[in-house]
Amino acid sequence: MSIIEIENLSLSLNGKNILNGLNIDFWEGHIHAIVGPNGAGKSTLASTIMGLSGYRNFEGDVKLKGKSIKKLNLDERARKGITMAWQEPARYEGLTVEQFLKAGAKDKSNENIKSILSKVGLKPESYLKRAVDKTLSGGERKKVEIASILAMQPEFVMMDEPDSGIDVASLENIFNTIKILKENGSTIVLITHSLAVLKQADHAFLMCGGMILEKGAAEKIIPYFEGKCLPCPHINVPDENIFKGDN
């Protein structure tokens, strides 16, 4: 069953076509990955699904469990269980990590919040009273944001470059968190340039020029990371004899 359906989605920004007639089904309870070069439209697609300002004037439709959410704003979509972890996490001046996590948590108990922090690789005794501001590094804020998503237990979560700013030693904590989200019933979409992140997915899409060039099991997209390419309308259009992938 599809939780999010993208139907003939096209979007132009500043007079430039970014998304071009996309049709995508995100299957409920699966981990999906969206990969592709810079400018492919990956983050734009996520922003459109999320309903961000500036990404609402599109053609086509976005459906949640078969019902259009095109007219719903960001807050309304969030209340329906759609959320996103940004590549550059936000700062929340005046809020401690504990307050931030409890704000959206389904289980606001101290034990649960401490457990969630530990799962993303942060020691509760060192971070609960820390402010979610510039005193935290980008990597620390990334972990706090992912911890907040784990606490929220959303139905559908998109993660833009989940490994960005994360050291190698902590990456396994993030991957474990993604698995926990799936086990708890969330559908996850990973927007990534990383082969390691792609390998966490059950299913993947390869985007370029605002279109889907390939889709299937995550393993099917691995050749993209081996320097192979598919013909597409990108400014640097590959020669037609270059790797065309499996049909």
Count of helix runs: 9
The coarse silhouette is globular
Q: Helicity level, as a percent range?
A: 25-40%
Determine the N-to-C terminus distance: 23 Å
Strand order of the largest sheet: 6-9-10-3-11-12
Structural class: alpha/beta
Radius of gyration: 18 Å
Outline the biggest β-sheet.
6 strands, mixed
Order of helices and strands: EEEHEEHEEHHHEHEHEHEEH
Looking at this protein, list some descriptive labels.
six-stranded mixed beta sheet; 29% strand; four-stranded antiparallel beta sheet; globular; disordered C terminus; alpha/beta; single chain; 12 strands; 247 residues
Structure, briefly:
The chain is α/β, with parallel strands linked by helices.
Structure description:
It is a single chain. By secondary structure, the chain is an alpha/beta fold. Helix content is 31%, strand content 29%. The chain is built from 9 helices and 12 strands. It has helices spanning 42-50, 74-79, 97-104, 110-119, 124-127, 138-152, 168-183, 195-198, 222-225, and strands at residues 2-13, 16-27, 31-35, 59-64, 67-68, 82-85, 92-96, 131-132, 156-160, 187-192, 203-208, 211-217. The strands form 3 sheets. The chain has a 6-stranded mixed β-sheet, with helices on both faces. It has a 4-stranded antiparallel β-sheet with strand order 2-1-4-5, with helices on one face. Strands 7-8 form a two-stranded antiparallel sheet. Helix 3 packs parallel to helix 6 and helix 6 (138-152) packs parallel to helix 7. The protein is globular, with a radius of gyration of 18 Å. 38% of the residues are buried.
